[in-house]
Amino acid sequence: MGRYTPEQIRSARTTNLHAYLLSAHPSMFRQEGQSLRMKDNSSISIKQGYSGFVDFSTGETGNPIDFLMKHLHYTFDHAVSSLLGGNAPPQSSAVMCDDSFAVKEIILPTPMPEKSQRMTDYLEHRGIPAWLTDRLFQQGLLYLEAGTNNLVFVNRKKDFCELRGTVPDKPFHQCRKTLPDRFWAFRSDSRKPERAMICESAIDAMSLFLLTLQSNKNSIPTLYCSIGGVYNQKAIDKIRAYLPVVIAVDNDAAGELCRTRNHNDPNIIPTRKDWNEDLCLLFSYRQ
């Protein structure tokens, strides 16, 4: 955050979020009276002239930077620069282009000095067994951030990371990437992948992998991908350039829009909202 002065950050936090979203992302929102509502989550409201948002389903509130990072998966730099009208400070490496951005590198969170039991315990609570957590940790694709205890899913090129909070009742999800088409992925096994499963989050990708193991021990070698948010079409297009893709996003309105955008690709839909909910349901039946 040192690239921005306190005054610039304060200015971004008090930007008219309603006006910004109408200008930058009009297709993602609908107008209801004096407020905008997210099309894929109608409980979120952004009132005209108000510098922030309210989620009536959870009681969560926040400023424009919070909203862009949590719900649209901006990085902090991208959010501040966008809210300032694309006027990033001279020392920033951010470059705005076509409602997206490019940065030379991302700052990866500092890892814990060794594997943390908290990471294993949190994922086991989500139905992810320790052997899969250990495997991804050993491959350098997953670790716990020192200080915050956030899970960090980082790709091999270190140009994309997905952060997930582990503190109960305090959900946190954020992505950092150098380009909009970056993503996180792991292989089902040592064989060369023949297809790619496109999921919205790393935990969903892990969950779908485990559900596939349960249903078919000799499955097709697969690359399980997290694109870090259902609207990341550029990542889907990039993956499709190398492998046939299966759209495996959430069972909700935003997921349906994604399936419609990619109607030429096969798709699978979780029974509940997402693959982790399906996995947890299976896990509860076995208790």
Written account of the structure:
It is a single chain. With 287 residues, the protein is of the alpha+beta class. It has two domains: 6-102, Zinc finger, CHC2-typedomain (DNA Primase, Chain A), CATH 3.90.580.10; 117-281, no CATH class. Helices cover 32% and strands 21% of the residues. It contains ten helices and 15 strands. The chain has helices at 6-13, 17-24, 64-71, 76-83, 117-125, 130-138, 202-215, 233-240, 253-261, 275-285, and strands at 29-32, 35-38, 41-47, 53-55, 60-62, 95-97, 100-102, 142-144, 151-154, 160-164, 173-177, 184-187, 195-199, 222-226, 245-247. The strands form four sheets. A five-stranded antiparallel β-sheet has the order 1-2-3-4-5. The longest helix is centred in the last third of the chain and has 14 residues, at 202-215. It is globular. It starts with 5 loop residues before the first helix and ends with a helix. The relative contact order is 0.10. Mean pLDDT is 84; it is low at 87-102.
